[in-house]
Fold this sequence. Notes:
Layout: E1 2-6, H1 8-16, H2 21-29, E2 40-45, H3 46-56, H4 60-72, E3 77-79, H5 86-95, E4 103-105, H6 109-117, E5 122-126, E6 130-134
Parallel strand pairs: 1-2, 1-4, 2-3, 4-5
Antiparallel strand pairs: 5-6
Helix pairs in contact: 1-4, 3-4, 3-5
Amino acid sequence: MTTVVLDTNALMMPVERNVRVFDELARLLGEPVGTDGSTVELVVPRAVVAELEKLAAGAGEEGVAASVGRDLVDRCRIADTDATYADDAVVELAVSPEHDCDYVVTDDSPLRDRLLDRNVPVVGVRGRNTLAITEP
């Protein structure tokens, strides 16, 4: 089983960056994502869900993007963490042996650097609307 943790901005990519996140992950990993029988597990920290809900209450493109991201969470497993700040919760899941994380999807540069420093492969936007894996 391949485990992929999604950050807040990863779930907002469909609106903000015109990236079809689940389709791009399927292309990168060579497996269907979010369908029955998939061997890819998508995980979202509860702190990310809370951040999406807060942002979705706002107006404009960010509010729409967060609302779409919140809908996408329904295709993922929500995981509890000790961290309440979304980025810290993503790192906690990524490095926790019990979650056995293979990749984290984010377009947040400081978070990407934190993950790469901890030897976690990061999936991020490359080019216009495609995803690519950055290995530590």
